[in-house]
Amino acid sequence: MDIEAVRTFVAVVDTGQCQEAAVDLHISQQAVSKRVANLDRTLGVTLFARTARGTRPTLEGQAFLPHAREILRAVERAAASVRPGERALRVDVLNRRIAPALALQDFYRSHPGAGLDVITLSDTNVSRAIEAVLAGEVGATFRAVPAGDLPEGISADRVLDDPLQLLAGRGHPLTSAKTLTPADLVGHRIWIPGIKQGTEWAAYYDELTEAFDLRIDAIGPDFGTEALMDAIADSAALATLVGTGDRYVWPAAHGLRRIPIEGPAPVYPHSFLYRTDNPHPVLAALRRHLIQARPILPAEVWTPSWAGSHS
Is the dihedral of CA 14, 19, 20, 21 positive or negative? Predict the structure, then answer.
């Protein structure tokens, strides 16, 4: 079915005259008549009857009219979905509870009504996430990115270095400390289920383990955050690492404590990646917000050797 013929049919119904419809559509009256005739042939009916008062839809035309309007609305929605400034900006975060997701919430609170769609490519490494940005599957992504390892057409802003904290239950030997150093963690099992080899977060924890002689493992199935919190609450031997900007909730009876790590503070280097030529207005506003809201870091920090700064 010819969409322009459907558009012309609706215009004739609304104006009541082929000539007036032609003016509205910026085409000739002959083109209007030809489009309507083609639509008649396609549907196998006569959509209009000519009367002394103009052109009026037949019973078949009246039956077709609500569907024709819905077709045009669907076409407009489809066009708007890929039109800069009208479609929502899709932004990928690894997890809706970590610092980048909360930064997006903060942006939306200060920009109510902004077209924003938050998704999670949770099993995707940085290379695949960048491919998704280049392909237009997402407008931007938050990832830890190796310095100088960006393909042409991708830009990155180092916007969110998030210091890590130890999360431990009341029975853990470190739980009463106000602060910890990386050296204090040596010999203690730090459990982070769900680490996937070949991802940037696996590379981060591998280098953190080597840098401070830590015992970080992902042994066992990943049953989710709630199961992890339950296991830590009941154990004197297990603890995990969380970002300072991450938001996790657990029952008060768990008695879990978040303990800052300092001297140096290991930070996870979140960068904001996007297509350099993306004109989406929400992208520009979000970049400004993230840059202005960069967190203040401790005086001494540690980041992996491969995570350089980005403009």
Answer: positive
**Is 148 in a helix, a strand, or coil?**
coil
Q: How far apart are CA 162 and CA 165, in angstroms?
A: 10
CA pair distance 239, 112, nearest whole angstrom:
38
200 inside domain: yes
**pTM assigned to the model:** 0.70
The phi, psi pair for 272, rounded to 5°, reads -105, 115
Helix locations, the chain, DSSP H = 3-15, 18-25, 29-43, 59-80, 99-110, 126-135, 200-212, 225-233, 281-292
Same domain, 262 and 166: yes
Number of domains in the chain: 3
Q: Which two tokens stand for residue 12?
A: 């004739």
Same-domain status, 96 and 41: no
Go through 73-102 and write b for each residue having 16 or more CB atoms within 10 A of its CB, e for each that does not.
Answer: eeeeeeeeeeeeeebebbbbbbeeebbbbb
Per-residue pLDDT tens digits for 10-52: 999 988 889 888 988 889 999 999 999 999 999 999 999 988 7
Preceding peptide of 295 cis, ω within 30°: no
The amino acid sitting at 164 is L
Output the CA torsion 160→124→196→301 (10° steps). -10
